[in-house]
Specification:
Number of strands: 10
Helix content: 10-25%
Number of helices: 4
Distance between the termini: 65 Å
Strand content: 35-45%
Length: 222
């Protein structure tokens, strides 16, 4: 077995800085008068895979960031995710139905209401991934697809980005969930889904972003 290479710890950062990933007390960033250039380069000093899993990897890295201070950054690397805001406006265009899911999320320790979403497979384009996830989790298909927004949910340590798609003109079908997925689907009026956001019944970030943005865009077009 080949021993795992250990990252070379930079001498410019103290032990306290390395262990907690914080800037050293002597960091130029502490000086409010210093203005960092947008062109200041980031230098990756060392990197190793601390954990490799089926869904994501964890990289332990030392990096010299803008400002000149070297710090340790533990980063979760992920291929990216797709989120689907599936809308059915056939019966009521003013208050269309939104497809929501309820499932247990162990990291949160509770059941959550969310939009359909999932991991984009390696080398898979985001739109085919969104279509696949919608079918697998709900059985629904959509004739019209459009991009809403792409964002990083937690860029401090998570390299995952999320692409939200608007899916319209739905047709129902048979769901094809994974063996470990137990998903309850429900069509909810948009107005009610927004109330769920306001009342904290929906606390999933990606779902809140999609619903609030969609509502804002609809109001702007009205």
């Amino acid at each position: 077995m080949t021993p795992r290479k250990q990252p070379v710890k930079p001498q410019t950062a103290s032990k306290k800085t390395q262990s907690k990933g914080k800037l050293a007390p002597s960091s130029p960033l502490k000086n409010k008068s210093k203005v960092l250039s947008k062109d200041e380069k980031v230098v990756l000093i060392s990197s190793e895979v601390a954990y490799r899993g089926p869904l994501f990897d964890v990289h332990s890295e030392y990096v010299r960031e803008p400002g000149g201070v070297a710090s340790r950054r533990d980063v979760i690397r992920h291929t990216g995710s797709v989120v689907i805001l599936a809308i059915d406006a056939r019966k009521n265009k003013k208050d269309p139905l939104v497809l929501l899911e309820r499932q247990y999320r162990h990291a949160a320790g509770q059941y959550l209401w969310e939009l359909p979403a999932g991991r984009k497979e390696p080398n898979e384009a985001s739109l085919p991934g969104a279509k696949r996830e919608l079918i697998e989790e709900t059985g629904y298909r959509a004739r019209r697809w459009s991009k809403l927004i792409r964002f990083y949910p937690s860029p401090g340590f998570l390299g995952e980005w999320m692409q939200i798609y608007l899916a319209e003109e739905l047709t129902s079908g048979q769901a094809q969930p994974e063996e470990d997925e137990f998903i309850e689907c429900q069509m909810v009026p948009l107005s009610e889904a927004l109330r769920w956001v306001e009342s904290n019944k929906i606390i999933d970030g990606k779902s809140m972003i999609a619903l609030l943005l969609y509502d804002r865009l609809r109001r702007a077009r009205a």
